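4.2 Preliminary Data

To establish feasibility before requesting continued support, the project team ran the inverse folding procedure on a target of 160 residues. The structure was first converted into the token representation described in Section 3, and no sequence information of any kind was made available to the design step. The complete token record follows.
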């Protein structure tokens, strides 16, 4: 009986956490917009961090501390990057798409380079390296967006 009560209490804590939903929605904003136009991931990550902080403010009705703002930005970037990386790896795990990617890489390999590498062997390393960059970019710019969201919220409250 006590285990059931503890599980229910833990579940209620998760749903009442004012940061949980904003972080998930900010991360989804970052990921979904990146699927539409990937080169603008810097803008989408900033927007995701901003959205998360604004939603947190609307949930709590108070300005959150700088530390909490940066944590919201950090986790928004992690959530968004995780979605992006999962979808990317899953979509290129398909044999046909993988073959097309390898053919494209081979076709566009610079002619002045000595030899074309075996992309079938190198592809996991390429995905791993790209995933690291996606995580770092998402976190950095989601932090920036969260900080901008905090400053704009403070400014708006001073004016209003």
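Position-by-position output of the design step:
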């Amino acid at each position: 009986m006590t285990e059931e009560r503890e599980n229910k209490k833990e579940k209620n804590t998760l749903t009442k956490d004012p940061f949980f939903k904003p972080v998930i929605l900010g991360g989804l904003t970052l990921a979904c917009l990146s699927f539409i136009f990937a080169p603008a991931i810097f803008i989408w990550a900033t927007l995701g961090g901003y959205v998360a902080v604004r939603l947190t403010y609307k949930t709590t009705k108070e300005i959150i501390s700088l530390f909490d703002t940066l944590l919201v930005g950090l986790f928004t970037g992690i959530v968004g990057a995780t979605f992006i990386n999962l979808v990317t790896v899953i979509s290129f795990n398909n044999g046909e798409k993988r073959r097309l990617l390898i053919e494209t890489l081979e076709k566009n390999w610079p002619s002045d380079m000595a030899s074309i590498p075996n992309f079938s062997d190198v592809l996991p390393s390429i995905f791993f390296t790209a995933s690291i960059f996606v995580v770092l970019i998402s976190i950095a710019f989601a932090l920036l967006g969260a900080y901008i969201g905090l400053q704009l919220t403070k400014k708006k409250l001073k004016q209003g």
